[in-house]
Amino acid sequence: MKKNADWWRQAAIYQIYPRSFKDSNGDGLGDIKGITSKVDYLQSLSLDAVWLSPFYPSALADGGYDVADYRNVDPRLGTLKDFDKMLKALHKADISVFVDIVPNHSSDQHLWFQEALKSEPGSAARNRYIFRDGRGKHGEIPPSDEISHFAPSAWTRTTNSDGTLGQWYMHLFAPEQPDFNWDNREVQLDFIKTLRFWADRGVDGFRIDVAHALKKDFKRLHIAKKSMSGFEIAQDGSDILFDRNEVHEIYREWRKVFDEYDPPRVAVAEAYVHAKRRMLYARPDELGQAFNFDLLGADFDARLFKKIISDNIRLAQSEGSSSTWVLDNHDRVRHATRYGLPKKTDLIQWLLSDGKSAKLDKELGLARANAATLMLLALPGCTYMYQGEELGLFEVEDIAHDDLQDPQWLRNVVPQMVKGKISGLALIHTDKGRDGCRVPLPWQARTASFGFGREKSHLPQPKWFAEHAVDTQDKVNDSNLSLYRRALALRKKYQSGEELEWISTGNPEVLHFKRPNGWHCVTSFNSKSFALPAGEILISSAPIKGGKIKANTTVWLKA
Ligand code: NOJ
C-alpha cells in the first residue's frame, strides 16, 4: 500500500544490525536472506519501518561503517537480488525500509581510495579525499594535532610506491575510514548517484551517518585538534571540523532528489550536536528528521524525562519536523543495563571490568527499561528501537578480549608500565567498545547459537540469552516480547496528531500526559504507590493491583 508523504512523522522504526540479526547460511554472520526469513516476526511487532545498518561490501574495520562499495551488498551478506527480494517481502508486510548512508568516509578498500594511494600528490584522485603534507623537516609530523574517534591521531601517513614515506590522509574515525573531501563536486555527485540507486530500487528512507562532519574548514585544518565530542564544538557553525553551516547546502540538494519520488524519500540525521543545531538538519527542505539522543545519556528520572520530552517536541515543531525518541542503538550500552546499574556508574569502566565494578540489578533495569519504552511509544513523533530490546536483552558485558571486534576497543590503547617487569611497557585498553550490544539475537533457546545461525556466531552469545530467546517468550503471555507486541499494536491504533498535554499529578515522581483519542500515559518513576486516574487500562509495563501503580511502571489508559 502506498504511504502518504507524512507517514514517517509518527512511525515506529526498528533498527536491524544485519550481521547480528539472523544468519541464513551458517557462516556466523547475519545476512539479507536472514532478514527476509524473519519478516513475519517484524510484522508481529506492528512496525512502520526498519532501518538497516550497513550491509555493503566492507573490510569490517568498523562493523560495516567502512564502506568499500556504496551500491552493492557484501557478498557474505547476499546479493542485490537478495536485497530486492527482502525489500519486496517487507513492503508486502507494509514495512518501509531505511538504509544507512555513510558519507563522511569510505573504507580504505574503496576503489577511489586505492586509486588515490597510487596517484601523485595534488592529483584528481587524491583530491577526492583529504591528503596533506606533514609538518616538520621531513613531513614526519601529522598536518594537524586533530584527534580521531578511534585512533590517537586523525592522520595516517602513506608510503609511496618506491617505499619512501609520503603524504598523510585524514580520518575522523579509524585509519581504515578515510574522510572524503566534500568540497569536491565529484564526491557530491557520486553520493547523489548512490541515493538514487537505492531510492530507485524502492528504498523508502536513509539514515545519514555523522551528518554533521562532512564539511571542513580547509583553511584552518592545520590548527584542528578537537576530539569527536560534538558538544564541545562552536554553536554558530564556525567549527573547523563539525556542524559547519555549509553542510546544509548538501542536504538541501539531497532533499530535491528525495522529493522527486512519490512518496518523497525520508531521511534522518545522526548529528551529535546541540539540540538547537541538530534541528537545522531536520528542516523540511533538508533531511526532515534528526535523531534526538538526549535520552541516551539520561538517568531514569522524572524531571529529566519531562524536560527532554518538552524541549524536543517544542524544538521539532519549531522547525516543522517531528521529534524522534531513542533509548538504544548499536553504539550504546543497552538501556535495560543502564537503568539497572547504580546512578553515576562509569559505563566505560564497568565494561572494562567485565561488569564487576558495579552490581547490575537486572529486575530493576528491565522494569525501568519497559516503563521508559512504553512512555516513549505514547509520545508524538517517531520512536527508533534497536533489535533485541523487545526481548529485554541486556548488554553482554563480559565478552572475552580475544573475541572483541570493535575498533573502539582495538584502538583505544595506552602504554602502561608493568610492575615488576624489567622491560616495562604493556598496552592497556581504555575502552571496551560497543560489541556488547551487537551480540547476535537469540531466536531459539535450545539450538546452536540460539537459532541465530547453525553453529558459532561472529560474537559469542552468553548462556543467559536462552531466557530471552524468541521461542521462550512466544510460549508465555506476559513476556517482554509480548509487551512490545501489544504496545506497538495499540500505538498503531491510537497514534494520531502531534498534540501532547501534560496533566498535573501533584507528585513530582509521576508523569501523566494525554494524547488525542483519549489516550493517557502515566509513568511512576519513583513513587511507591500512586492511585491511577479513572480510565480503562490498555496496557501496563508491570502488573497493576488495586488501581495503583508502583515505581518504575508505565500504564496507558483510555479515558
Ligand atoms: C556512527 C555510527 O553509528 C558508528 O557505529 C560508526 O562507528 C561511526 N558513525 C563512524 O561511521
From TrEMBL:
One of its GO terms (molecular function) is sucrose alpha-glucosidase activity. GO terms for biological process: maltose catabolic process; sucrose catabolic process. Pfam families: Alpha-amylase (PF00128). InterPro entries: GH, GH13_cat_dom, O16G_dom_2. Residues 15-438 form the Glycosyl hydrolase family 13 catalytic domain. This is Unannotated protein. It comes from freshwater metagenome. The lineage of its organism: unclassified sequences, metagenomes, ecological metagenomes.
